[in-house]
Design brief:
366 residues, alpha/beta, seven-stranded mixed beta sheet, four-stranded mixed beta sheet, 18% strand, globular
Length: 366
């Protein structure tokens, strides 16, 4: 297709390693657009406006934003105060996904240890690259552990189709490679398991219908798009074997913030005795928070994301106003799924229960 699709990653550096290139996810699936990020301001806008989205990708984008800051110092030297201000600006771009703060702080800590400007630049680029590769490897391992769950269902069903349901997009577009929620799906598909994925459209920005479905189609995975409110009906009818979703922030007690609409899916799964798993790398844990409902900041976005529907009309991308122009709207971007509704967490270190004790079993250093 294009240069970007051949990369199979949603973010990379150009040949001169001075420009961050990203897939503009606002344009998919109808257009494949690559955007150039050259400054901290470009990165902040890309994160705020959801040119890039998904917790791991936001983190890597923020890390590369720190690298761009080292390239664009307004002074002859790269002052630490300047870097700290740039990092604070990056971290304020989106409030809910913890990966952004984690990645930016990690790069900043690394470069503050350097005195020489050239070494600061190299250190920033190197650390950002390490973060990206770490997230890729974490997602690969999530796929390995999650595959076992799907294979167990396959055995119970005597090789009949395994029906999975997911919400939002937690695929490679959100996670550099493999994805979190999609990693087990891809692993199962590649090992020959007959799988089918119910894809929640995921209003208001339709990341499921636009992005997850596009990814699965490119991969050759059978899937069907459904409206968000159909998930419970499908579960009642026995058409869902397991739910897998991603996460934007998870407390050390197992509460999960994810795209708005995840909580109702978890409620329906619980009522119908269907396993509900959350796939996440360790960078998505917030080790400072205990109570997700009370302590996780929920981003409220532009109401026009609800009021307008975006799509294709006669080969032209367009937007259409749905409600009366004078009707107000509220656009909450995330909700909190309490640990009691979650069957387990799939991480790069294995699968655990959504409890403090079992999470710390996998991550004793925390």
């Amino acid at each position: 297709m294009s240069e970007a699709y051949r990369h199979s990653r949603p973010i990379w550096l150009d040949n001169d390693v001075k420009v961050v290139k990203v897939i503009d996810q606002r344009c998919l699936p109808h257009e494949f657009v690559v955007s150039d990020l050259k400054t901290v301001g470009d990165v902040v806008r890309a994160i705020k406006e959801m040119v890039v989205r998904g917790a791991p990708l936001i983190g890597v984008t923020g890390a590369l934003g720190v690298y761009l800051a080292t390239l664009n110092s307004p002074d002859q030297t790269i002052e630490n105060d300047y870097l700290i201000k740039a990092c604070n600006r990056l971290k304020s771009a989106r409030p809910t996904a913890v990966n952004l703060k984690w990645a930016v702080d990690r790069v900043l800590e690394r470069i503050l240890a350097e005195k020489d400007d050239d070494k600061k630049i190299v250190a920033a680029r190197t650390e950002a690259a390490k973060i990206a590769e770490q997230e890729v490897e974490n997602c690969r391992k999530i796929g390995e552990y999650g595959f076992r769950l799907i294979d167990e269902i396959r055995r119970r069903k005597s090789n009949q189709t395994v029906n999975l349901l997911t919400h939002c997009n937690a695929g490679y577009l959100a996670c550099i490679e493999y994805g979190t929620a999609t990693a087990p799906i891809y692993a199962a598909f590649e090992k020959g398991i007959d799988i089918h994925v119910w894809v929640d459209e995921t209003r208001p920005l339709n990341q499921g219908a636009r992005l997850t479905a596009w990814e699965l189609a490119k991969h050759g995975v059978k899937h069907t798009i459904v409206v968000d409110s159909a998930a419970g009906y499908l579960m009642q009818r026995g058409k869902v074997d397991m739910v897998i979703v991603g996460a934007d922030r998870t407390t050390y007690t197992g509460d999960v913030a994810n795209k708005i609409g995840t909580y109702p899916v978890a409620l329906a799964a619980k009522d119908n005795c269907i396993p509900f798993y959350v796939a996440l790398p360790s960078s998505t844990f917030d080790w400072s928070l205990r109570d997700g409902l009370r302590e996780i900041a929920i981003e409220e976005r532009d109401p026009d994301e609800i009021r307008f529907i975006h799509g294709l009309n006669e080969d032209q991308r367009t937007s259409v106003l749905v409600p009366a122009a004078e009707s107000p709207a509220k656009n909450f971007a995330f909700d909190i799924t309490p640990a009691r509704l979650i069957t387990g967490l799939i991480t790069e270190r294995g699968i655990c229960k959504a409890t403090e004790q079992d999470i710390r079993r996998l991550f004793p250093e925390k």
